[in-house]
From TrEMBL:
GO terms for molecular function: DNA-binding transcription factor activity; sequence-specific DNA binding. This is LysR substrate-binding domain-containing protein. The keyword Transmembrane helix does not apply. GO terms for biological process: DNA-templated transcription; positive regulation of biosynthetic process. Belongs to the LysR transcriptional regulatory family. It holds the Pfam family LysR_substrate. Gene3D superfamilies: Periplasmic binding protein-like II (3.40.190.10), Winged helix-like DNA-binding domain superfamily/Winged helix DNA-binding domain (1.10.10.10). Residues 5-62 form the HTH lysR-type domain. Keywords: Activator, DNA-binding, Transcription, Transcription regulation. It comes from Pseudomonas shahriarae.
Amino acid sequence: MFASLPLTALRAFESAARLLSFKAAAEELSVTPTAISHQIRVLEDWLGVALFERLPRKVRLTEGGERLFRSLHGALLEVAQSVDTLRPQRSGSSLTLSTTAAFAALWLVPRLGRFYARHPNINVRLDTHCEVIALHQDASVDLVLRYSLDDYPNLYGLCLFDESFGVYGSPEQVALAGRRTPTLISVRWHNSKLYAHGWEAWCAKSGANWLNQHPAIREYDEEHYALQAAIAGQGLVLASNILVSESIASGLLVPFQGDVQVDGAGYSALCVPGRERHPPVRAFFAWLQEEALLSGLAPRSQPLAAHTGQAVQIS
């Protein structure tokens, strides 16, 4: 049934398509770039279609190449995971998770102890670099947690939260805000389409005329810096109901006009289709879903389905 499949060429293609480089594929497979190029030509001749566009200094997948890569990558990943389950079990396993520094610090890390209590042999490695991960090309990352307005039809995903923004401050600052214009604390968003003109939207909805009174405004590059400033009593912060939840629970921050909220986007957990069956990834998905439900912030429906694309980086 499979005797005619050019397995060596398919393996070379998967590596080159994932890395978008014949040279990088050659290094990964310990062969020469010429050998990779030859195997790709063999596969293209066998199929009768071009899989790559050869451009100056780079290559790009054709439509046919994209289709083959999506199916081939998932199939090889499933084979690799099946083979791994047959090996003698090691004392532990690992999971690499990419998310933002703010989400890791303010929501994920405070709860990770509950995951480790249930799965002591799974080590979670956090990658909080700012670069957006292209999951189909970076096999070192198992899943990403991202905040985005987009859908991801080529990735397996779990919708965790629908976010809203409110105003919060220390108990003292919230009491003072009823008598005088407060200092406003905000975040300098790197991706403005995720949440633009936040204070204007909140003031319009609440009826507050603070912006007309030319208040002092303090901006920070990251949400956790803005929340720390609010906790320290430096003013009121416009913040995500998700990222502020731990500070609210501990009493460090309290809401100001808590019924006034403006809509944000949503958080999702995403991985390459097929990887969700890998035991550590499956365990982490299940735990995330439970934590989202426990928090009371989960959306009413929580589809586990094929989503996709590249996740949008928060802030």
